[in-house]
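User: My collaborator sent over this chain with a note saying "see what the structure looks like." That's all I know about it. Can you take a look?
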Amino acid sequence: MTSSPETPARLKLISHKLCPYVQRAVIALKEKGVPFERVDIDLANKPDWFMKISPLGKVPVLVVATEENGEVALFESNVICEYIEETQGGAKLHPADALKRAEHRAWMEFGSAILGDLWGLETATDPATFESKRQALLGKFARVEDALGTGPYFAGETFSLVDAVFAPVFRYFDLFDELTDHGIFRDVPKVRAWRAELAKRPSVRTAVGADYPELLRAFLVRHRAHLLKLAA
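Assistant: Without extra context I'll predict from the sequence alone. Here is the result:
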């Protein structure tokens, strides 16, 4: 049961400052102009109350409070984004056509696969692993390049949930570009243009705090990332 307009749901997003999956939900909420409370936690020291509401022990978790249902905790970022799309007003972030909508959902999953390779890239401690993940990303972004149209967004003029998924992916490279000439976007001009356009979007810019670059660099230091050796 969804809440009526007279009793809107109160939304609380449990998050982590670096998590790209959290950023998806934040961007979706901001695009729709939905008020929400954000609570950042330390994933290295997860509170007991968080473990009780997050079966996977991961963020984001969206706690939805309504008069009808009390508090319900939703987990998994794409599930959260779909709930936001289905229940909140504001701009539509999915196509109306069922086939197009399914296509967008598939590309959202592809964005998650890219994040898996990105995790490998940023935590690689040796040249061979780093190069393996770099090559994987080159291949995946080549597929994205083939799927893109004239822009400025994934679906043309309309910002969608696919954009919300890929914006946090591109954000990593703001720091990575400073560290090394990785060449991942060298041969994908449409992807480069898409990245630049998403970086201008207010919802994307404000999905993280001003300390994001510093926190990401500290993450690389903790993991003895090969990326930092390339910058030396």
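A starting point for your reply to your collaborator: The chain is about 55% helix and 10% strand.
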